[in-house]
Please model this.
Amino acid sequence: MKFPSIFRWPLALALTSGVAVSCAGLLNQSQPGGFTAIGLPAKGGSVAPKAAPAAKVVTFNKDIAPIIYSNCSSCHRAGEVAPFPLLSYDDAKKRAKQIAIVTESHVMPPWKADEGKEKFADAHQLSMDEIAKIRQWTDAGAPEGAKADLPPAPKFAQGWQNGEPDAIFQATEAYNLAAEGDDVYRCYVIPTNYTEDRYVSAMEVRPGNHAVVHHVIAYLDTSGKAREKDAADPGPGYTSFGGIGVTPAGSLGGWAPGLVPRLADAGEGILLPKGADIVLQVHYHKSGKPETDLTKIGVYFAKGPVDKRIRSMMVINPLIRIPAGDANYTTTATRKVRDDITVLSITPHMHLLGKDMQISAALPDGSEKKLVHVNDWDFNWQMIYGLKQPMKLPAGTQVNLTARYDNSTDNPLNPTTPPRTVTWGEQTTDEMCIAFLFYTVDSEHLTKGEVAETMPGGGGGGILGGLSPGLRQMAMKLFDKDGDGKLNEEERQTALAWWRDHGAAIPATPPQ
Ligand code: HEC
Model:
């Protein structure tokens, strides 16, 4: 199958837990909001597009420009993710029919969850009235209207979207990418040389070459092992599929086309440990001709004192085993919350077979809160669902995930024909089942010296965290060879490799 030339991924996160998830959802921890395409407030109400009174002429200048400027132009402009601009009457008239079709079918603006602007920051969604107006305008021959009615064109920042960063990091030289072949994950090791811990409010990425940069994740390494890998591989950086080949000490977040980071709220930040190396992993998709890339990241430090660390946890099921031909494989994952926490955002992650994913929270008092339901999963539009109102979850809450996959020939995105059994893995032809939750711990007050422990087992339990206690115990028996109660890098690799081969068979047939 030919992948679309541009993939759009909210960026992933790898975290201390250490699952190799480079291909995984990926996101800017500091950026609960995800995409920043601007949206008009939903007008709600009507169920079907309705015809306006015949007398009223819908024109571009008066009626359509405001819709396009607020909902489309942020992506549809030079240097951004969409393939053509939507900034003028001529731009829109040329594609009027197509615009009516893609808005009616909800293909554009891209939005994949069943809830929208009431709940999530930066949701892009049109109201039924707006969709109906576009249809009327198109059917009327796409009239321009009176010049005086045209609102001023939207203004977008050039270059760094949050202004000049406090620090800019990049590899020492550009990377040369071959014309054709498999995707490349290149890891550039960039020393920060800070002598004290710092807190990051946001990280912004400026890809060097939009034609080939698919997504970028900035991992952190404090072990020095990434430097060793860099030294052993000729050229800038080193190649590592999936993860970065060492257990990261955290992540500053990441980037995918269309993603613009927002600064974290005052008093919150992501920890950048002193002396850490940034391991900037760039996922390249080859363009058909030789290309070069030198991607930069800009870091914005928290301005005031930081009281709470922005942390992340995964709800994950690495034991997926999706039978060939199964059009509705359903699986679940669960994780217990150990502290009172406040959830900032949710990033579901699957690959090409994913159909939908629902994440909800079962509270100790028996009530249930819905986090997000992505009912129209689209590998090309993986988003960070940033909650407008951060959600409080008391200790003891169970976060539950249900995901469905289509591994039949009827799934046009199925990368393998005829279908084969698919298990957990890093390649786009493998699958994943993860949701990342970004949160703060309510009891943490760094300014008063009150530091929350990271949640062991229930919260930061790495690849085993999403398993039931019984399964987790079994998995520990199998893979924790040195018996220290956690998986070191080698044990983790063995576990992942084994899961790739055996998937859900783990409880029945332990490896010899
Ligand atoms: C978040 C970024 C984003 C926003 C917001 C957005 N678009 Fe797009 N649009 C894209 C991208 C990327 C593509 C190319 C699709 C692809 O390659 O699969 C696209 C493609 C299109 C196409 C061509 C579809 C096709 O089948 O070829 C149309 C028409 C379009 N957009 C209209 C709109 C309109 C109208 C809006 C606003 C109501 C809008 N878009 C909002 C990113 C965006």
The chain is about 15% helix and 25% strand.
